[in-house]
Design brief:
Layout lengths: L1 H31 L12 H19 L10 H14 L1 H4 L23 H4 L2 H10 L15 H13 L5 H8 L15
Helix pairs in contact: 2-6, 3-7, 6-7
């Protein structure tokens, strides 16, 4: 018993002291405001890496809880394109459509989604759109879009890599925003 206590003291105390030091430094950063919280300044590389990796792993873990998506139809893609244009395009842009100029003042900057379906599964895209991403400006659309609307957005995102600017313009031209979308479309 005495031997184990000695070993614990030799190994445990340095670790405990190290953790306490990290905690004190972290508390100092919080209390002094030393962390730059301005949206116009990009995150330091380690912070960007940690937050993105955390988000990616959380989405992958949580999306496994979802049922498989429905089979997508061309009508779903069209409805998703209209919902995207009304709610998402201002931040993420689209084929032949630039993002709003003020998006450059967001940290992190919203990604272009032209290849999102190559990086995320349908269930992962659904999770991101439905529940949003904290501290990114990406809202949770579960308050304003139905599950059906979100699946239609996913259908659109899956079709997006093969969509030309002309295809996108035709799909979104002078069409009203679908029922339940958060914003009205103005031609």
């Amino acid at each position: 018993m005495k031997r184990w206590l000695g070993l614990l003291l030799r190994l445990g105390l340095p670790w405990a002291a190290g953790l306490a030091s990290v905690g004190v430094v972290g508390l100092g950063v919080v209390l002094t405001g030393a962390f730059n919280t301005t949206a116009s300044t990009p995150h330091a590389a380690p912070i960007a890496w940690v937050t993105h990796l955390t988000m990616t792993n959380a989405v992958k873990r949580n999306a496994t809880q979802l049922s498989n998506p429905p089979a997508f139809t061309p009508a779903d893609v069209l409805d998703g394109a209209r919902t995207y244009d009304a709610n998402c395009g201002v931040c993420h842009g689209g084929p032949g459509v630039a993002r709003a100029p003020w998006v450059g003042g967001m940290t992190p900057s919203p990604p272009f989604l032209l290849d999102a379906s190559r990086n995320w599964t349908s269930k992962e895209l659904f999770w991101i759109v439905r529940y949003g991403v904290r501290m990114t400006g990406m809202p949770a659309w579960d308050q304003t879009l139905s599950e059906h609307d979100v699946w239609n957005l996913v259908a659109f995102l899956k079709a997006l890599p093969n969509m030309s600017a002309a295809d996108y313009a035709r799909a979104t031209a002078a069409q009203p925003a679908p029922a339940g979308s958060g914003l009205a479309r103005t031609p």
